[in-house]
């Protein structure tokens, strides 16, 4: 169907006589506006020229958040956490520490720079899903190889957008992290999804076993010079390091390699006795997902290595060291996830802006005498670093390799 609407515009606002109207009628302009009928599908539903809400996020508190889907489809359950980083979404979605979690980005625009294959932090995406406000419809980056939507779809990861991420973030800050269910399946009712969220739990679950490597391997990837902050010892092998893979990020290994370390990466269940046979100069306990109390085998391995070889822990490794020393860990209200957390270095008084990703922390009051708290998170006063000189031990709760950034704590 098409219609035409004629609009007459007279450029003479005041007309004093019929003769004047006729003589000046040539100044009247006529505009025609065409309109077309909206197509209707055989079933009778109107086909809209834009994407409509086709997904839901149902939280365990009973709230339902309609959204639009991208990436994979289906139904997935996970713990919802928010990340305050302004950029670096590709490093975030490939960080194994997010296994079992939906990552909600507080920055409203995601997908602007697409994805590439140099910024991945692991062999695959381990997170349960991605929640964002606005999905960029175009990309602008000379390194872009693929759109975020295609990237997640090819890796079977669900994503939703056009949801009020600020409102959800406020709720998580008020009540703490919540279990949620993402679904694009219309056959499932809100009540069914709510029941799924209330019968699933992440506490006490061994998530490390699903992200660790299957067998030991040598790390051979060197850091490209344009991304390297170490110029004095680049690629000069000076130390032999055994790195326990609890969900290790590639940039941690790249940083160690750039400072001259020859690295052997081993699975989370690798026996301490086999590590000692390798005669390493040091042992790294990496970052990783979940509850440190759910992996007692890892704590025992750490115990067996403390005092026999210098050790360093990052994130999950920091928490495991805290438990191995006799301390306790606890689940935080909503954790630390972002690239803008201020940390005070108690050794020199310097404040560093750090990249963090953890839901658990070490209780400093539970640590034995002789263990020093070296770093403190200035947002909430939680323990962000430990050292025990007698045992040649140190650890950090945040990511000193700073991927995706910032780089205050790189050295």
UniProtKB/TrEMBL annotation:
It comes from the Eukaryota. Pfam families: CPSase_sm_chain, GATase. Signal peptide: none annotated. Its EC number is 6.3.5.5. The keyword Iron-sulfur does not apply. Pathway: Amino-acid biosynthesis; L-arginine biosynthesis; carbamoyl phosphate from bicarbonate: step 1/1. The keyword Nucleotide-binding applies. Residues 53-183 form the Carbamoyl-phosphate synthase small subunit N-terminal domain. Keywords: Amino-acid biosynthesis, Arginine biosynthesis, ATP-binding, Ligase, Nucleotide-binding. It catalyses: L-glutamine + H2O = L-glutamate + NH4(+). It is an enzyme of class 6 (ligase). InterPro entries: CarbamoylP_synth_ssu, CarbamoylP_synth_ssu_N, CarbP_synth_ssu_N_sf, Class_I_gatase-like, CPSase_GATase1, GATASE. Gene3D superfamilies: 3.40.50.880, Carbamoyl-phosphate synthase small subunit, N-terminal domain. Belongs to the CarA family. Heterodimer composed of 2 chains; the small (or glutamine) chain promotes the hydrolysis of glutamine to ammonia, which is used by the large (or ammonia) chain to synthesize carbamoyl phosphate. This is carbamoyl-phosphate synthase (glutamine-hydrolyzing).
């Amino acid at each position: 169907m098409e219609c035409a609407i004629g609009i007459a515009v007279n450029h003479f606002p005041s007309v004093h006589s019929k003769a004047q109207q006729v003589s000046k009628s040539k100044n009247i302009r006529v505009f025609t506006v065409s309109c077309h009928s909206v197509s209707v599908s055989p079933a009778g539903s109107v086909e809209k020229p834009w994407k409509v809400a086709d997904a839901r996020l149902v939280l365990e508190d009973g709230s339902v958040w309609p959204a639009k889907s991208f990436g994979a489809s289906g139904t997935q359950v996970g713990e919802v956490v928010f990340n305050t980083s302004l950029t670096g979404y590709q490093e975030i979605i490939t960080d194994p520490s997010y296994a079992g979690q939906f990552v909600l980005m507080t920055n409203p625009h995601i997908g602007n720079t697409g994805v590439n294959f140099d910024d991945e932090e692991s062999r695959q995406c381990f997170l349960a899903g991605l929640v964002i406000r606005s999905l960029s419809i175009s990309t602008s980056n000379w390194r872009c190889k693929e759109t975020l939507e295609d990237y997640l779809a090819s890796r079977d990861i669900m994503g939703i957008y056009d949801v009020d991420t600020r409102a959800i973030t406020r709720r998580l800050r008020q009540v703490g992290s919540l279990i949620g269910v993402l679904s694009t399946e219309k056959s499932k009712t809100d009540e069914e999804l709510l029941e799924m969220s209330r019968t699933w739990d992440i506490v006490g679950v061994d998530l490390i076993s699903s992200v660790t490597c299957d067998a030991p391997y040598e790390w051979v990837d060197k850091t490209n010079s344009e991304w390297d902050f170490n110029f004095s010892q680049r690629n000069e092998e000076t130390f032999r390091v055994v790195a326990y893979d609890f969900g290790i990020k590639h940039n941690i290994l790249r940083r160690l390699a750039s400072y001259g370390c020859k690295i052997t990466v081993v699975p989370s269940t690798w026996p301490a006795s086999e590590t000692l046979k390798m005669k390493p100069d040091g042992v790294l306990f990496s970052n990783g997902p979940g509850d440190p109390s759910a992996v007692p085998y890892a704590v025992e391995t750490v115990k067996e290595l403390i005092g026999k070889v210098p050790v360093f822990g990052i994130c999950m490794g920091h928490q495991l060291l805290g438990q191995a020393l006799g301390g306790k860990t606890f689940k935080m209200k909503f954790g630390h996830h972002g690239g803008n957390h201020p940390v005070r270095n108690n050794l020199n008084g310097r404040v560093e802006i750090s990249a963090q990703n953890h839901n658990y922390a070490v209780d400093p009051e539970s640590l034995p005498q002789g263990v020093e708290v070296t770093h403190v998170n200035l947002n909430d006063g939680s323990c962000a670093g430990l050292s025990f000189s007698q045992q040649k031990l140190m650890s950090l709760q945040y990511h000193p390799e700073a991927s995706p950034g910032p780089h205050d704590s790189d050295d």
